[in-house]
Amino acid sequence: MDDSEPDGPNGRLEDGRKRKRRGQLQAPSDSKKSLDDKMQQLLEQHSTMLAVFASRKTRVYAAKTQCDKDINAMVDYMLRIDDETLTADLLPVLLSIVQVGKGHNNVDMPSLSMGACLELLPLLHPLLDSEHESYVIKATDFLLAIVKHWWNDFLVMTTGANKTGLEASLSTPGVYTSLVAMTDKVGKFVEKKSKVGTKAKALFDMLLQLQ
Fold first, then answer.
1. Is the pTM of this model over 0.90?
2. In a domain, 163, yes or no
3. pLDDT by residue (tens digit) across 67-115?
4. Phi, psi of 6 (to 5 degrees)
5. pLDDT tens digits for 41-74?
6. Residue 92: beta bridge partners?
7. 142 assigned to some structural domain
8. Count of domains in the chain?
9. Which range of residues forms the domain containing residue 98?
10. Any long-range contacts for 166-170 (C-beta under 8 Å, 24+ apart)?
11. Contact 155/210 with Cβ under 8 angstroms?
């Protein structure tokens, strides 16, 4: 008789126990594979995030290079790239220029012209439609700064009169019309119980006054 094969009830029972033990020994190996897969997935996710931030950094650095030459050069760069994330990254810089006309290290920078703002307005629409609340806030802040900065010019537009000479900007009608056209879009955020709602309400009220 071949002793390598178990025989009888006791032999079959012993064989079943051995197979069960082998299965138990394989379980940790399967669990480890699952853990390794999860860790690999996590590493890949972080690698993707790093690649995204590296790309953003490269574009912001390129924008800074243009800004060091001339603020309008940076605006041209933004228009050429036409990237929602880049616009969101740079809007706080442009906002500070509109508000105080100062650049880094308290060095005066050329003011952002109304013509430049007119060119930038189309870039704000994707931000207002974005699912990222921070993007909506940045776009709203910038629009509010424009309205406040040129408030008197826009009020004149509501009367149907036009300024002439050095006081006027040829871009005033375009900016005014574009801002008023955004009233309904901004109004969608007014009822939100958040920072977005508060900022949108302030902008919405001013836009209504310009109609």
1. no
2. yes
3. 888 899 999 999 999 999 999 999 999 999 898 754 445 455 568 889 9
4. -70, 145
5. 888 888 888 888 888 899 999 999 998 888 999 9
6. none
7. yes
8. 1
9. 70-209
10. 169/113, 169/114, 169/115, 170/115
11. yes
